[in-house]
Every structure is written in structure tokens, then in C-alpha cells.
Amino acid sequence: MGLFAEVYTGIADKANAKFAQAGLSDVDFETLIRLARSPQRSLRMSDLAAQTSLSTSGITRVVDRLERDGLVVREACATDRRASYAVITDAGLARLQQVLPGHLDDIELWFTGLLSPEQLSQFLETLRTIRDVVRPCATAGVTQRVDAAQG
To answer: Where do transmembrane segments lie in this chain (predicted)?
Structure first.
């Protein structure tokens, strides 16, 4: 676990410096990237909290900040008045586009580029196996929005 923590911390420190240059924290980036890759570029707030391992109040604070910056908006759920969705805006996508090229270069330099294709494939498969046991909610809400599909 110590080796795993050292690797994660080393990569995260390098990534966080790039995020800060774009005015984002690591949690901001994670929130935006999860929204951008989700159906309709949105997730229920509860699913977003589950995916990021933040509490409901924690993700609310992150979304509040991103909303103030114009990077995310909230939309009410048409089928459940208790629920709402966080939706990435065009400005949020533009901010991601500002950060992603450098981030992907860093991932290649400090992670994927250090492994052969076979090593990387096996490593990612192993990580998914472990993730699915220790964080089964990590992919919560990846199905299409019910109210968006209706109209």
C-alpha cells in the first residue's frame, strides 16, 4: 500500500499543478471530467457524489463553486422533484479542453508511457477488478438520464 500511495501521490502532485494553472482543484477537474463523459453531459447529484467519494454536502459545495464560475449548471429532474442534475456547460467543456492536452501528456509521461501495451492492459484490468469491489458506486449514474430520454 505504501508503494501504491507513493505512486498515486507523485502523479497527483504533478497533475494538481496543471489544474491550478487553469484555476481548478483536483476535485473540480474530477467533477468536470465525470460530467463531460456522462450521457447528456450530466449526472444526478447523488450519483456524482458517489462517483467522487464525496458526501452529498461535499459535492454540493463543489458544484456551487463550479456553478458560480459558469462551468456547471443544475437542472431539476422532471421525474423526481427531490433530485437534480449537475450539467457541464460549454464554458466547463472549454476549461477541460484547456487542461486536457497537458494532462494527457503528463499521463503519458508519468504513467502509461512507462508501461508496455500488455503491462498497461493488465494493470488497468486489475485496477478495475479492485475498484469494482472497493468502490462499487464509482460508475453510478452512467446510464442515460430518464427525463432527457423522454423529451
So the answer is: none
